[in-house]
Amino acid sequence: MEALRSGTLPIALSLCVLSSGKLLAQTSGSPTDNSIDHTTACGLFQLGKEFRRALEHCDRALDDNPSDHSTLLNRGSAHLALGNLEEALSDFERAIKIKQEDARNYFNRALVYAAKKDHRRAIADYNEAIRIMPSLAIAYNNRAAQLETMGEVEQAITDYRQALRLAPSLAPVIRPNLQRLGVEP
């Protein structure tokens, strides 16, 4: 991460792993494909929370390969982090057209809808993410938050509990929500 903070990327990257856990690129020496180089930089700057720099590289990678799914997700996430909700929404919708059965697409688009206070659309996208990946605990947690906001407390409690069952490691986040609603986890 020091290379990200200093503004230089290492010339030889052995491995770049995105938050999805998928291998983004494996290179040694200088890559011959600029789109891979920009895709890698896009992912690295995204991980380093340098969102403006990530956008620069994502844009360049997408100029070379407009249908690169991982780059669209990274660019959409960078836009979301910067508050560029319409741009984020556009990227996640493009990602959905490319890979309709990828839960991350719907999860990320739901984050945009939640930020826009469009609770019904956020819930619909969390539903779709859960349909595709029923073990996606954070989707249950986030859907619960949307349901709670809409006053659907019983459904929210059910979702918080399901998230806790699926991912006990989320207990520090979920337990206070349940306790706030007067329910023991």
Furnish the topology, listing elements before pairings.
Elements: H1 2-6, E1 16-17, E2 23-25, H2 34-47, H3 51-64, H4 69-81, H5 85-98, H6 103-115, H7 119-132, H8 137-149, H9 153-166, H10 171-180
Antiparallel strand pairs: 1-2
In short:
By secondary structure, the protein is mainly α.
Provide an overview of this structure.
The protein is mainly α and 185 residues long. It has two domains: 1-99, Serine Threonine Protein Phosphatase 5, Tetratricopeptide repeat (Alpha Horseshoe), CATH 1.25.40.10; 104-185, Alpha Horseshoe (Serine Threonine Protein Phosphatase 5, Tetratricopeptide repeat), CATH 1.25.40.10. Helix content is 67%, strand content 3%. It has ten helices and two strands, in the order H-E-E-H-H-H-H-H-H-H-H-H. The chain has helices spanning 2-6, 34-47, 51-64, 69-81, 85-98, 103-115, 119-132, 137-149, 153-166, 171-180, and strands at 16-17, 23-25. Strands 1-2 form a two-stranded antiparallel sheet. Helix 3 runs antiparallel to helix 4. The longest helix has 14 residues, at 34-47. It is elongated and about 50 Å long.
